[in-house]
Amino acid sequence: MASDSWALAVDQQEAAVKSISNLQIKDERVKPDTNGVIKTNATAEKTDEEEKEDRAAQSLLNKLIRSNLVDNTNQVEVLQRDPKSPLYSVKSFEELRLKPQLLQGVYAMGFNRPSKIQENALPMMLAEPKNILTLFSVFNQYYFHLSSSFLQPTELIAQSQSGTGKTAAFVLAMLSRVSQQRDTPRQSRMWCLCLSPTYELALQTGKVIEQMGKFHPELKLAYAVRGNKLERGQKISEHIVIGTPGTVLDWCAKLKFIDPKKIKVFVLDEADVMIATQGHQDQSIRIQRMLPRNCQMLLFSATFEDSVWNFAQKVVPDPNIIKLKREEETLDTIKQYYVLCNNRDEKFQALCNLYGAITIAQAMIFCHTRKTASWLAAELSKEGHQVALLSGEMMVEQRAAVIERFREGKEKVLVTTNVCARGIDVEQVSVVINFDLPVDKDGNPDNETYLHRIGRTGRFGKRGLAVNMVDSKHSMNILNRIQEHFNKKIERLDTDDLDEIEKIAN
């Protein structure tokens, strides 16, 4: 789904929301069709379109399907604004000296100890600007004066993959700031402002705020999203405002619901998704320029390519930087093969031969288009397989439901397009099949997608099996270039030879 159609869909959803109490994600049950294939009514539409990555949808999907943090063993890289400043990290939440109610909320969410990113980010985000002891003289008499520093609090840019606890980290920082000021008069409440790229991602962050802050019932949250209508002249007095850039900009500049000069903490989440959405980058920068100089700026991103870095520098000047490298997916534990075929039907027959010769716990099969994926899912279902179908036109919540069923083993085969290539860990997946090899928009091999696809097997310390279907000189050329890129030989497999197939399973 292209980003502009996604944005249009979000706008339509937001327009349907009548009040803040309606801001809930619809929980739709996904049921099999008459062929036993799990899909939606929209699956048959636009089936000839190639699947395109939608970063906002992928980010939301990762949030919905993750029940635990990623167990990341990579080291954290910290680049400090002042290299001479001491570097602090924590191994427990108690070391942060949080209010008891906030600490209770953290533990209620299942966090027993800080994650890698939280160990280093939280001490920085929660550090108070130091007081300054000033020496001055009056009529030759010297006095000491203790005054608050006008220096900015710690600015932070953090890069960390989905599932590492970054959302909980900045939510904890916001709640900690607010909890310190909750007894102040209504008109002088400390405000925190958090920008999310889409309505749905804003709701997900809001849920984390509500869960972590549930033992602080006096803490109030407002959603600045289209569909939440306020009366003219009304002023937002909640402690935390979370919203999308367009609506937040309107509320600050045009409607005056928010006084940006009162914002003390500004969080920009999903920066890589933000710059991929038309208009959001400029809107975010305009909002940032309205904020006071002593406002703490925090920016988070899953990736850190040049475009993200250029954007981050405009939003967060002179920052501290924390990078948590992605878990490197490896091909060392995956046996790779290719099968020569002449057409789609022969590829399907080769697939049936594989299933007839070896025991496959669960398999993921990747196709290039929705049309091929729908056809293949239906054919496999006719052969008696329990099949789920996943593609980009499905609502994100429906995708999450399909993945959860597959994870629970209710379906043994997941036929999917590129929407499922990243971030989905199912321990029982023993085989990944590239029914179509991954290529980019110019027809060149998409090596990163290939790595992510076959990386769905060979996980959790187990050996995996990847089978690539080759049906033309062009796809053979693609395969050869993939071999060269990874410097890994991919062996040919004859699926008409049952003895040969049985050998690869040993």
TrEMBL record:
Record-listed E.C. numbers: 3.6.4.13
Principal subcellular localisation of the protein: cytoplasm
Where the record annotates domain DEAD-box RNA helicase Q, the positions are 91-119
Family annotation (Gene3D superfamilies): 6.10.250.2170, P-loop containing nucleotide triphosphate hydrolases
Residue span, Helicase ATP-binding domain: 147-322
User: What are the record keywords, sorted?
Assistant: ATP-binding, Cytoplasm, Helicase, Hydrolase, Nucleotide-binding, Nucleus, RNA-binding
Where on the tree of life does the source sit, at the highest rank? Eukaryota
Stretch list, region Disordered: 34-53
Q: Which SUPFAM superfamilies match?
A: P-loop containing nucleoside triphosphate hydrolases
Report the enzyme's class at the first EC level. hydrolase
Q: Which reaction does it catalyse?
A: ATP + H2O = ADP + phosphate + H(+)
Would you tell me the protein name for this molecule?
RNA helicase
Q: Which organism is it from?
A: Cnephaeus nilssonii (Northern bat)
